[in-house]
From TrEMBL, chains A, B:
Residues 3-91 form the Pyrroline-5-carboxylate reductase catalytic N-terminal domain. This is Pyrroline-5-carboxylate reductase catalytic N-terminal domain-containing protein. PANTHER family: DUDULIN-RELATED. It holds the Pfam family F420_oxidored. The keyword Cell cycle does not apply. Coiled coil: none annotated. SUPFAM superfamilies: NAD(P)-binding Rossmann-fold domains. Keywords: Oxidoreductase. It comes from Streptomyces camponoticapitis.
Length: 212, 212
């Protein structure tokens, strides 16, 4: 059992918190405005606190904060994150008029690497950012197998996060350990396709995959 | 029947030339050193010429030249390419000691966009760069379905290239029309994963896909 703090109170945080709770973990949700989250959209069975309290109490922290704001928010939590694994599932993109990604915010790099640079005492692992929110904890709902990628400079941390993915229903053979954090650049670039894919297919769930 | 000039005499050019010939097209291969190509590794049934002759004779031209050299080579062919569809299947990357991509040469952009900028009278369509050479003309050999992406600013050109993909054995439902050429950035970033995937799985064929 791991005490997991999911930072963020949007759809991604909700998609992850419940299944990890069901898998037997202790799950906290950290919100910038916990009272409003509890009032407007409570999470059954999950304690919602402020971001610092959630980060402090957790063994492992998940970044499901908005991609454009998370670097600053996470930096402010540095003392509570030191030594912990930080699972980054966010995407930092500029958006077009339809709300789809038109450019990545860190071309030639990645959000995950920026977080690691800002928080050198944290072990960042990038994962799940290439799957639609409805697929993150239900990969078998797609007709063809998606991939879950792991990028991070610490191999133990990647292994830890890989185990948490199996708790979300990911078969081990669909999880691809890519290696160091630089590899997060390719999964993050996948976001550039989301608008095109929705325009081509409509709003159906999908996820990046490597076919073999 | 289209007269297709495949520029390049390496494995990618060879993987495409034969199947298009078999599909009933007239296929020329353009080489920087056609006499050496004919002597060392002839292509059965395919006429090998210099790059300018191949480009001049073709209705449609395929860039299967080395990614680092192709921008300069294609620019030198500009008079022979004007008005034609240019299918870009190349990848422009920096490589590590093992020969795998360590960085893309055009971060925040793409090779395809650079070619389009250098050759404004050409209609560039990016495709197939996300598939192992053995998959490009044999997508059904993988256990799970790969995707073939089409990126280009001219929708007629994308349609033309989509038809040529079906001639290579790609089912229409595996071909994803992404839209304008900026979308080539994501498929080009896929190359950053190739080294990791080969290290994880060994030298097996694979290709990028979108699972849905």
């Amino acid at each position: 059992m791991t005490t997991i703090a999911v930072l963020g109170s949007g759809n991604v945080a909700r998609a992850l918190a419940g299944p990890w709770l069901d898998a037997g973990h202790k799950v906290l949700v950290g919100s910038r405005d916990p009272r409003r989250t509890e009032a407007d959209r409570p999470l059954p069975g999950v304690h919602v606190t402020g971001l610092p309290d959630a980060a402090r109490a957790a063994d492992l922290v998940v970044n499901a904060l908005p991609g454009r704001a998370c670097l600053e928010l996470l930096s402010s939590l540095a003392p509570h994150l030191a030594g912990k694994v930080l699972v980054d599932v966010a995407n930092a993109v500029e958006t077009d008029a339809q709300g789809f990604a038109s450019a990545v915010l860190h071309p030639g790099g990645s959000l995950a690497e920026e977080i690691q640079r800002a928080l050198p005492a944290v072990r960042v692992v990038k994962t799940l950012n290439t799957a639609h929110v409805s697929v993150m904890a239900a990969p078998r709902t797609l007709a063809t197998p998606p991939s879950a990628f792991l990028s991070g400079d610490d191999s133990d941390a990647r292994r830890t996060v890989g185990a948490l993915l199996t708790d979300l229903g990911w078969p081990r053979e669909w999880i691809v350990d890519l290696g160091d954090l630089r590899t997060a650049r390719a999964p993050e670039a996948f976001l550039l396709l989301v608008g095109s894919l929705v325009r081509a297919w409509g709003p159906v769930p999908f996820a990046m995959s490597v076919a073999r």
